[in-house]
From TrEMBL:
Pfam families linked to this entry: Hydrolase
Family indicated by similarity: Belongs to the HAD-like hydrolase superfamily.
GO CC terms of this entry: nucleus
The protein, known as: Haloacid dehalogenase-like hydrolase domain-containing protein 3
InterPro entries in the cross-refs: HAD-like_hydrolase_domain (IPR051828), HAD-like_sf (IPR036412), HAD-SF_hydro_IA (IPR006439), HAD-SF_hydro_IA_REG-2-like (IPR011949), HAD-SF_hydro_IA_REG-2-like_cap (IPR044924), HAD_sf (IPR023214)
Lineage of origin: Eukaryota, Metazoa, Chordata, Craniata, Vertebrata
Length: 238
């Protein structure tokens, strides 16, 4: 039977948008602009470690800890470069500022193949749409720059909500914004625990984006798996 859906909620990073180039390359280019040579692979590795540590210490961009998300990101960027041997505080501050600005727009992000088309087709079928993303306040602008913002009734970020996926409260807030009961909603995302499991725990239908060749979670029935975004409408209308 066709799912009776009125609202689709969407994850963003690696579901609708992806980085245009590996983060290490972008950071290395920023360093080059300041006359510094730092290896992209080394920066990528340092970033992953620093980001993970900062997320553990100050979850959700330091929400409720008197820190702005802008400051949170500046600290991540500076510490990433410090781990790679950059010591000049003035240059660290300039690079943090430059990268924060860069990641606000279309310069660093691009739509995944099929994203714009899938959103357009869902909208044509009368489905309302919203975003539920563990992202900071820059997301509105990023979606605008990438030409996707107009598809959505609302954009709910973890910074705006004060809670991050997989916390059920961010999905409950989305249901409130959509004004739709959970059984008429489906969430689409690429993260098994934060998107698929978390949405289902609130009674929302869920589809997991899993490109071919990626490991499949055994607990996800095949009819909930999207090899590409283009498969979504066929599954909804089954």
């Amino acid at each position: 039977a066709m799912l009776r859906l009125r609202l689709l909620t969407w994850d963003v990073k690696d579901t609708l948008l992806r980085l245009r180039q590996p983060l290490g390359l972008r950071y290395a280019a920023e360093a080059r602009a300041h006359g510094l040579r730092v290896q992209p692979a080394r920066l990528g590795q340092a970033f992953r470690e620093v980001y993970a540590a900062q997320s553990r210490r100050l979850p959700n961009y330091g929400q409720g800890r008197g820190l702005s998300s802008r400051q949170w990101w500046a600290d991540v960027v500076k510490e990433t470069f410090r781990q790679c041997g950059v010591r000049d505080e003035r240059v660290l501050a300039l690079m943090a500022e430059g990268l924060y600005r860069d990641f606000c727009g279309g310069r660093c992000w691009e739509a995944l193949p099929g994203a714009a088309d899938t959103l357009r087709r869902c909208g044509q079928r009368g489905l309302r749409m919203g975003v539920v993303s563990n992202f900071d306040r820059r997301l509105e602008g990023v979606l605008q720059h990438c030409g996707l913002r107009h598809h959505f009734d609302f954009v709910l970020t973890s910074e705006g909500a004060g809670v991050a996926k997989p916390d059920r409260r961010i999905f409950e807030k989305a249901l409130g914004l959509g004004g739709v009961p959970p059984e008429l909603v489906a969430h689409i995302g690429d993260d098994y625990s934060k998107d698929y499991v978390a949405a289902r725990a609130v009674g929302i239908h869920a589809f997991l984006l899993r490109p071919a060749g990626q490991d499949r979670e055994p607990e996800v029935p095949p009819e909930h798996v999207l090899p590409t975004l283009g498969h979504l409408l066929a599954l909804i209308e089954k």
